[in-house]
Each structure stands twice: as structure tokens, then as C-alpha cells.
């Protein structure tokens, strides 16, 4: 009874708010960044640029796992306790690594990398449209003037429900892509979440080494695959139908190879009180 007590720390609230703010800050770069590339880049170069964007995005978790591996080797109270007074090692089950250090390093790096975005121009010129600027600008001005004459009153703001139903959920291609992405990322996140713990339990690896192995083996092939997919789409100049067929073939091969995971594994550890009796 003396070992049981109610948790009194509310530090988890700061972690929750910090992750929420981080997610809000990271979200615009993908939809707005892809739109930026699509609007101001040559059509045949867009797949490569988008592939590079997603490849760099996959390299982030890889370096994150490597950073987590390094931080896990450091004691959680580093800087506040004498390292010579620590009598346990990272292989000890009681060891807690400096998990908070990665947030500070990652946050400072994200802040510094966000500064160059402030100097990007609001719009760029496409090379093939450089000679059409004056004509396009005049056409837009005349179209806007006619529109103002035809509808002098203020337009009513559209409701989010109508926009969601008409523009997003009403688009069959977008809705299908949304469902596929949901299923794909659900499986990938589950695999990435439980794989470190599986390696720790089944192979006796430390948290630090598990993160290191995952960062070096799991994520680089994904980034390489995204980049190669963009190059293939550019080389063969795939349209929407061609890209859909290419995606179906690659996804099918991926799922077939993933079935091999069912034949690879170790027996579960016997745990007293759960899988076997205390006797």
C-alpha cells in the first residue's frame, strides 16, 4: 500500500499543448507547399518536386529516431544530477532516457528552418507564361469588372457543410484517395509504433538501439521509394489514370510482400500471472 500513490505531476499538459501547437504549425506545409509547387512549376517537373518534398519529410523521422537513440543513452535528469552517482545503465529496465531533450533540439531546429519561408515570394512566374502576363492580366481585369457589374451586391459566405459536401466529399476521386491514405497510414503508423517495443521485448535490445535500428532500416527505403516514384512519373509523363494504375500495382506488390511478416517472429515470453500461473 505504501508504494501506491496518485500521480501529482501535470507536465503531460505541456506535452499535449506542445504537440498540438507543433501539429498546427506543421500542417500547412504539405497542402500549401504542394499547391505552391503545382502552380509555379512546369507540369512535367511537379511529380519530382512533390517526391522530393515527401522524401525530405520521411528523412525527418529517420533523424528523429537517431536523435531519440542518442537521447535515450543519456539519463533523464542529465544536467541536474552528477553522472558519477548514477548506478544503473541503459540496459537496466529502470533506466529512463532524456526523452525531453529531443523536443528542445527539434523545436529549435524547426524554428530556424522556418525562417527562410518568410522570404519566399508570394507568386512566381512560369517560364512558358512569361509572355502572356499582360494579356492574362488584362483579361482578368475585364472579367472582374464584368463580374462586379453583374453582381454588385455582396456575395453570401458559403457554409462549411455545403462546401465539404459539394467540393470535398462530392469529389469521388478525392474521397477515394482520402480513404486509401487513411488505411495506408493506419497500417504504417501501427507498424512503426509497436516495432521498437517488439525489438526490445523479443530481441533484448535497449530503447536506444531499437530506435537506431528503426531509423536506419525502416524509413530510408520509404523515402527512396517516394523519390523513385516521382522520377518514374516524370519519365513516362503519367496522367491521372496512369498514376492510379501505377499506384495500384505498387500497392499490391507491397501488400503481398508484407504478408511475409506473418511467417517471421518469435514466441511470446511467458509472463507470470498473464500467460502462465504463478505456480
From TrEMBL:
One of its GO terms (biological process) is monoatomic ion transport. The keyword Transmembrane applies. Pfam families: OATP. It is found in: Cell membrane; Membrane. Keywords: Disulfide bond, Ion transport, Membrane, Transmembrane, Transmembrane helix, Transport. One of its GO terms (cellular component) is basolateral plasma membrane. GO terms for molecular function: bile acid transmembrane transporter activity; sodium-independent organic anion transmembrane transporter activity. Belongs to the organo anion transporter (TC 2.A.60) family. PANTHER family: ORGANIC ANION TRANSPORTER (PTHR11388), SOLUTE CARRIER ORGANIC ANION TRANSPORTER FAMILY MEMBER 1B3 (PTHR11388:SF89). This is Solute carrier organic anion transporter family member. The gene is Slco1c1_1.
